[in-house]
Amino acid sequence: MWLYLIPSLIIFFAVQVYTKSWLYVLWRTSNRDVKAAVRFIKINYYLIKWQIRNMTVPKVFKTIVDQRPHKVAFYFEDDVWTFQRVDEYSNRIANYFLGEGYQRGDSIALLLESKPEYICIWLGLAKVGIQTALINTNQTKNPLFHSISAANSQAIIFGSNFVDVLKEIQPKIDNLRKYQFHEQESLNIPLFDNAKDLRIRLKESSAAPVTEHLEKGNLKDPFLYIYTSGTTGLPKAAVITNVRFMVMTIGLNSMVNVQDKDCIYDSLPLYHTAGGIVGTGQALLCGATVVIRKKFSASNFWTDCVKYQCTVSYITFSFDFGYFSVHMRLADSSIYRRNMPISSSFEQ
């Protein structure tokens, strides 16, 4: 086969050079190629800089906080989270779990709806070297227990909405320490099986920086577990190191040219790579503002973009794009002209 292919390629390139058509192609694509090269250099610049300084995700985030403490990091419904607020909340998480006796290298499972506290919890644990297993909120019974145990979790942090699914595997998780997070403080929901009320405990926890523990972090340290969907069996845990998180985040940031002045609409689940790393990482590592939504809604998409003045939309589609686009006419046209959608699993 190669004996026929190689002469064909030689003839093709000879014709291109002879006719000089390659110069035309080069000229027509030069602008695109130069942009791609510059952005690729930007990716490597940040990665090399972070490697030389032995940075971690929490360390980079600390530099972002120092530069813009009062800038908005996350919007969630009518709640506003500045970078300083995220930093202080994650410090409370770090100090509380240090006080609970957890050490660097321990693992804790997280089963919670998408909200800013979700990010603050795993960020705070990462500051002191504790790894977080991000559990798919759709899992129940055996897949749920498998995901918890696959990461060798010593404890589980869970929202009150998931008490019923945990009761289904209660005998299997009796050995785990449990921390219950009430989604709504006003609701008087009973605690699950010897669980501690995390909201109340955090109010008593210190927001002081954990600088000593932060400095012990390494670029190659694992700090998150993210799971496959389990369509071919039980979910499989992928280990996310600091450098892996950085590569995915800065890769999208540079190639799409996201700026720190952008407001990014992230309606993807925070337990997945797309929403939980690439999406929220634009705030944590790059200083952009991210809008978090519990679940994607086509009917509310453009309304939200108008409300938060979003310039980038990080979304996924499992339905016909035409259904999504019909809602454009309901929104301010100036918004979707400025809005750059980034999509995975796109269907036409």
User: Radius of gyration over alpha carbons?
Assistant: 23 Å
Tell me the quaternary state.
single chain
Under the CATH scheme, which class? Alpha Beta
Please tally the helical runs, counting DSSP H or I stretches of 4 or more residues. 15
Task: Report the major sheet.
Answer: 7 strands, mixed
Would you identify the CATH architecture?
Answer: 3-Layer(aba) Sandwich
Average of pLDDT: 85
Strand order in the largest sheet: 7-6-5-3-4-8-9
Order of helices and strands: HHHEEHEHEHEHEEHHEEHEHHEHEHHE
**Helix-residue proportion:** 40-55%
Low-confidence stretches: none
In total, the number of strands is 13
Could you tell me the strand content as a percent range?
15-25%
Q: Span between N and C termini?
A: 37 Å
CATH topology: Rossmann fold
Class computed from helices, strands and strand pairing: alpha/beta
Task: Kindly give the count of domains.
Answer: 1
Overall spatial form: globular
Chart the SSEs and their pairings.
Blueprint: H1 2-19, H2 21-52, H3 57-67, E1 72-76, E2 79-82, H4 83-99, E3 107-111, H5 116-127, E4 131-134, H6 141-150, E5 155-159, H7 163-167, E6 177-181, E7 196-197, H8 198-203, H9 211-214, E8 222-227, E9 237-241, H10 242-255, E10 263-266, H11 273-279, H12 281-284, E11 289-292, H13 298-308, E12 312-316, H14 321-325, H15 333-338, E13 340-344
Parallel strand pairs: 1-11, 3-4, 3-5, 4-8, 5-6, 6-7, 10-11, 10-12, 12-13
Antiparallel strand pairs: 1-2, 8-9
Helix pairs in contact: 2-10, 4-5
Keywords: ATP-binding, Ligase, Nucleotide-binding
GO cellular component, one term: endoplasmic reticulum membrane
Domain AMP-dependent synthetase/ligase: 63-315
